[in-house]
Design brief:
Blueprint (H helix, E strand, L loop, with lengths): L1 E5 L1 H4 L10 H17 L5 E5 L5 H8 L8 H24 L4 E3 L7 E3 L2 E4 L3 H8 L3 E5 L1 E6 L2 E5 L1 H12 L3 E6 L17 E2 L20 H15 L4 E6 L5 H6 L6 E3 L11
Parallel strand pairs: 1-2, 1-9, 2-6, 3-6, 4-7, 9-11, 10-12
Antiparallel strand pairs: 4-5, 7-8, 11-12
Helix pairs in contact: 2-4, 3-4, 6-7
């Protein structure tokens, strides 16, 4: 099984509020369909970020900082759900049997971490060859009030319960840059012990979930929690890159546990 995330920076214009990259969404959906056709046994759980949809609204209402702005919570949900619908429409348009499982419908969160989420419906969708879709979403938090759940946090909860072999985090960056903000050198591998000495920064646009730094942190936690799990950060901007990754390609940066060799430059 593969957990695949389509990053918000990949499927939206992050500097334009509530603006999707429709042509990119359609291409990515087509590449997922091609990969499933090429490998009929391929199992995928798809997740996507919120990009210029949920992040812009959450920044205005400060939903990620907690509090009891329930009107703000509903507004952020509306925006994130709007993008989710566009993603689902693109997937179904490519012939994929997509079914949405928004975390806000079942997540129970404590201090930013998921303590409960409905897993069995997702498991059943996979068993019957549907394409389950989760997303970055809002949630009620105990005791903070409101919170934002990144797709990586949702993956972190689901991984030990669904046991993926690979986690592919597709965005616009070719991998994790070693020289942010120059962005000329990419790490081939990153281990937890490498993080302190690397200049890993957040997103260049509004991202209330922490951008690349949060992605690396949660990716490494996933790699530690499931021995043998392959976690990769890569770019799906180039046509065909996503299809190749789904069919076994090894693009971008590998996030590995401390038993793997140190980060390398290329």
């Amino acid at each position: 099984m593969i957990f695949l995330k389509l990053g918000g920076s990949l499927i939206t214009f992050k500097d334009r509020a509530e603006t999707e990259r429709g042509d990119v969404l359609d291409r990515l959906a087509a590449e997922i369909a091609e990969a499933r056709h090429a490998d009929p046994q391929l199992e995928i759980l798809l997740g996507h970020g919120s990009g210029s949809f949920g992040h812009s609204a959450a920044s205005r209402h400060r939903t990620h900082l907690g509090g009891e702005d329930w009107i703000g919570l509903a507004e952020v949900w509306r925006s994130a759900n709007l993008l989710n619908r566009l993603v689902i429409d693109a997937l179904i348009g490519a012939g994929l049997p997509a079914l949405s499982f928004p975390p806000s419908a079942s997540a129970r969160v404590r201090n930013g971490e998921i303590v409960e989420l409905a897993v069995e419906p997702i498991r059943r969708a996979i068993e019957v060859r549907l394409l389950p879709v989760v997303q970055g979403d809002v949630a009620f938090d105990e005791p903070a009030g409101t919170t934002i759940l990144s797709t990586e946090r949702v993956f972190s909860y689901l991984a030990p319960r669904l046991h993926p072999q690979r986690v592919l985090l597709a965005g616009i960056d070719r991998g994790v840059y070693l020289d942010f903000p120059s962005n000329t050198k990419i790490a081939e591998k990153i281990r937890p012990s490498d993080v302190a000495r690397l200049a890993i920064e957040g997103s260049s646009a509004t991202d209330v979930t922490g951008g690349m730094a949060d992605k690396v942190r949660h990716g490494l936690a996933l790699a530690r929690s499931l021995p043998g799990l392959e976690v990769r950060v890569f770019s799906a901007e180039e046509p065909g890159a996503l299809r190749e990754a789904l069919l076994g390609g090894t693009p971008g940066t590998l996030l590995a546990d401390d038993s793997a060799p140190s980060a390398e430059r290329r």
